[in-house]
Structures are given as structure tokens and as C-alpha cells.
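sorry for the late reply, my laptop died twice this morning and i had to redo everyting from scratch. anyway the thing you sent over, i finally got around to it. pasting the sequence first so we're on the same page, its 256 residues, then the predicted structure underneath. double check i copied it right bc i was rushing
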Amino acid sequence: MLTVVEVFAPVVPSVSAVDTIPDGWSLMNAMRADNARRPDNRTLREQVFEYLREEILSDRLPPGTELHEVTLAESLGISRGPLREALGLLVAEGLVTIRPRRGAVVTRLTRKEFIEAYQVREGLESLAIRLAVPRLTDEDRARLHELADEMVEHMKSGDVQRFFAANREFHDVFVERSDNDRLRAMYEQLMSQMGRLLSKSLDLRGSLDQSVAEHRAILEAVDRGDAEQAARLLEEHIEVPYRILDSEAAADMFES
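ok and here's the structure:
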């Protein structure tokens, strides 16, 4: 079982854009140095929340890590009040779990929970694209084509991280254009919970070529204004990884 002390020790140098961090430099100071480079109206709670959220999604704070309030507050150079509020936001997103006598722990999802999350994602995105297609503007369609082209370029160059960034934005367009605030909120929370697994999507799919072809097919249906066909193709696209998750091939990726 990892603790926050074990995890944060090697992480400190990567927290900000500075090349070196002098003795006694806290993680909070590192965040402030980075924030000084741009206008930032976020509260301390929001800064800590976003920092810890990124640490969790990047697996620098892996599932099962114990987040001791006193130790973490000292590491961040802040009081426990804003830290406790930030942890509450992480709990609401499903990224942190509060356990009796153990306190806050980075959530560890089982394979069953991830399969269920993919099933919910399919339902949300299917509804989103049905709502969005009639509302898409020419600019929206142009952006979708740009993102599809970017995915092809990143696939050819082998830049997996940028491929999935373009992929996520492609899907986000439909959620944003659904004009359904509740759907959007549920989707954002779900994707936060799934974020760590999405980074392993290449392992689940086997290659990016098929994903590119699936996005192209979805986009062709969107261009025709065929929301039902676009939704069916999107459902099939999302089903690929969770069918693999449900197989024995993915058994070693999760706890039982």
C-alpha cells in the first residue's frame, strides 16, 4: 500500500516548469510559480483539487494510495481546510474514496466497475450524438473533420497521447452540442472516473487504425445528418474496449 509520502517524494521536481526546486520548496509554491505565468482566479481549493486530480489521472498517485491529510497538507504547504474541501470534490468525482479508519484513498475500480462505466458511457454518448446532430453548425462539422485528420496524423507519427487528446475532443463535441447540461455533467464525472483506463485504450483496441476508421464512419453519418446511424456506429465503437474488458485477456489489468 503506497502512502502519499512515498508517492510525492519523486514527483516534486515535475510539479512546475522550473528546472530545479530549492530545499524547502513546497508543492504549493511550485503550483504558485506555474500560476504566476498566467492569470489565475481559481481559489486555493480549486488549485489543490485540479493538481491532485491531474496527479491521480496521470497515475502519479496510483489507485490505493492513502492520502493522509496532515502529511499531504504539509507537502503542499497549505492548511487542512482547503485540502479537505479539495478531497471532497475528488470524492464527488469518484476519484477518491473515504474509508473508515483509513481516511482518503485513491479509488481503485474493479473490472466489473469499468465495464459498467463503459456501458453507461455508451448510453450517454449515444443520446448526446442523437441530440447534437440536428444542432451542429458548419463550424462544428469542420472542427470534427479537423479532429479526424489530426487522429490520422498522430496515428502515423505514433503520438498516442495526442491521438487520444484529439479523440476525446471529437467525442466532447457531441456532448457539448447536445445542449443538455445534466447529460454533460454526468459525462464529465464518468470520464474522470474512467480517465486512468482510457490511457490504456490502445492495449484494449490493439491498434489505432480501426479506431480511425470507426471515427470516419461516424463522421460520414453525421455529415449526412443521419443521427440514428451515427448513434449506432458510435455505440459499436464504444463497445469494442468493454467487450475486451469482459474477456479473460483483460483479467490482469484489475483486481478481482
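Residues 111-253 form a domain with the Four Helix Bundle (Hemerythrin (Met), subunit A) fold (CATH 1.20.120.530).
thats about all i looked at so far, will dig more tmrw
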